[in-house]
Amino acid sequence: MTETKHNEVGAINSVPKELHIDGQWRPGASTFAVEDPSTAKVLCRVADADADQGVEALDAADRAQGEWAATPPRERAEILRRAFSIMTEETERLALIMTLEMGKPLTESRGEVAYAAEFFRWFSEEAVRIDGGYMTSPVGGSRVLVARQPVGPCVFITPWNFPLAMGTRKIGPAMAAGCTSVIKPASQTPLSTLALAEILERAGAPAGVVNVVTTSTSGEVMGGLISDPRSRKLSFTGSTPVGKKLLEQASRTVMRTSMELGGNAPFLVFEDADLDAAVDGVMQAKMRNIGQACTAANRILVQRPIATEFAERLRERLAALTVGRGVTDEAVVGPLIDAEAVDKVDSLVRDAISRGATLELGGRAHDGDGHFYEPTLLTGVPTEAEITSTEIFGPVAALSEFDTEAEGIASANDTPFGLVGYVYTTDLARGIRVSEALETGMVGLNQGVVSNAAAPFGGVKESGLGREGGFAGIEEYLETKYIGLGLA
Ligand SMILES: NC(=O)c1ccc[n+]([C@@H]2O[C@H](COP(=O)([O-])OP(=O)(O)OC[C@H]3O[C@@H](n4cnc5c(N)ncnc54)[C@H](O)[C@@H]3O)[C@@H](O)[C@H]2O)c1
Question: Which InterPro entries does this one have (predicted)?
Answer without folding.
Answer: Ald_DH/histidinol_DH, Ald_DH_C, Ald_DH_CS_GLU, Ald_DH_N, Aldehyde_DH_dom, Aldehyde_DH_Superfamily
